[in-house]
Amino acid sequence: MALIYHVANPLDWAQTLQQSKDYDAAIVPEGFIHCCTCPQLKGVLARHFPDALNLILLCLDEKRIKAEIRYENLSGGRAQFPHIYGSINLDAVIRTVRISSDPVDRKFNVPKTQIDWPVFDGHNDTLLHLHLPERGRGRSFFQDSGIGHIDRPRAIQGGFCGGFFAMFTPTPSEWNKDQIEHNGETVDISKAIDHVVARRNVDAMFLLAEDLEKKSPDDFRRVYSVDDILDAFQKNSIAAIMHIEGAEAIKEDLSNLELYYEKGLRSLGPVWSRSNVFAHGVPFVFKQTPDIGPGLTDAGKNLVQACNELGIMIDLSHLNEKGFWDVAKFSNKPLVATHSAVHAITPKARNLTDDQLLAIRDSGGVVGVNFYVGDLRADGEYKSDMPLSQLIKHIEYIIDKIGIHHVAFGSDFDGALMSDELKDITGYPKILELLRKSKIDEDNLAKLCYQNWLRVLNETWKEKSNKIQNPLKRRVLIVELDK
Ligand SMILES: [Zn+2]
Q1: CB 197 within 8 A of CB 169
Q2: Cβ proximity of 4 and 478 under 8 Å
């Protein structure tokens, strides 16, 4: 075990180092890091930390860890020069950053610095990205590969603590396009896909998630209740909700739905942007309303009822408008769109109209705002040179229209084109910073980051938690380092 000391004053760094000699690591202000880049400092540090085998200096700004310097075998012959890591060293952060409602750990003089709220996110396609060799190129979830948008190291940097892990079956390219007539225009739409193809794909991703958890439950855990999510937060593991996007893997007579529930399914979007035996999805068309095509089929209505009974959340994202109103009519749970944006700003058929937003509010539901540039840009273009302020516009619009209790994040990381400014999941703190600048206070930010999701899930799932009235604050609580 190693102890960590918080260096409060950058000007008295030598003195504070002296004080911290009983500790094996220190948290230092940013100015200190610049001093540490000087190789001559090695001698000074060796004097102050004669017994340290591994000395780790963590640099924090107001909200998050920014850099780390690691000294190995400082007092031995093979002492290494300080090394600045461009990004956070994972091992150290996993073991040192804990989530706690306790603002200060007095025993170890832990800083009061509050880092960002835990981010819980309505949608990612990371399982598919890892599953398909042509997308993930064999990357590992546990290493920062720079490929795709989410892996464990980058999730930690972004403050991402969990969310909906979608199991989506892409339309095979050879059947990619179908066409429908709408408002006198011919609209391209993805063809329906085969049940067997979808089931094979979804089953493979269930196994993949199981495998991730088996390999490292400290890094990835499937969750089935709000208590499971809170427990994963506490243990600093990623809380993963198993979600099927597009219900093609479910048999029309629903005979395998319960089987998927037993495998861990807790959220289901009846459609992606295509039709199936249950409902009809909205195509990727600009300057169109979502009112394209008919409502739920009879099988779709049965699916809604069965999901209600089992406690599977129904996701309205990509469902066409008639289908949306059918779910609103037949479902007895809060209405949820896990990853959608605002039609009044970006008139894409995939986005939610004001009436849909109001219905979500009235049901006590939530909208996870999609970060996909094509759904956010006012010109509807698929271009990544979009300022992040455009995303904030969508979030603010929903807050103004239906209130802070009904908006959350639903990024679509690993499934969609992101803003260059955001890049990947490591960009989350930039979003939080912009929201703070737009005068969203900390209580409301917490609702947006995770509390709204937890509230809705608790109302929807069978297993109830009584803990969400006392939401956790995520703070830096550095206690020990198992190095
Ligand atoms: Zn989607």
Answers
A1: yes
A2: yes
Q: Tell me the CATH architecture of domain 119-460.
A: Alpha-Beta Barrel (3.20)
Q: pLDDT band at 44, cuts 50/70/90? A: low
- pTM, rounded to two decimals: 0.75
Q: Ligand 1 centroid vs 145 CA: distance in angstroms?
A: 23
- Residue 89 main-chain phi, psi, to 5 deg: -80, 120
Ligand 1 centroid to residue 83 C-alpha, Å: 41
Chain segment 144-164, per-residue pLDDT in tens: 888 999 999 889 888 899 999
State the distance from the centre of ligand 1 to the C-alpha of 265, rounded, in angstroms: 17
94 C-beta neighbours (distance < 10 Å), count: 18
Of the two residues 238 and 137, the one the predictor is more confident about is 238
**Tokens encoding 219:** 């890094």
The region of weakest confidence among 154-158, 315-319, 385-389 is: 154-158
Contact 71, 52 (CB under 8 A): yes
CB contact set of 107 (below 8 Å; sequence gap of 6+): none
CA atoms of 303 and 10, how far apart (whole Å): 61
Cα–ligand 1 centroid distance for 320 (angstroms) = 13
Tell me the two tokens of residue 180.
């429908």
Nearest to 368 by CA among 127, 123, 166: 123
Output the six-digit token pair for 332.
């007895």
Delimit the CATH 3.20.20.140 region(s) of the chain. 119-460
Ligand 1 centre to CA of 200 (Å) is 19
Pair of tokens at residue 440:
């969203």
Length of the chain: 483
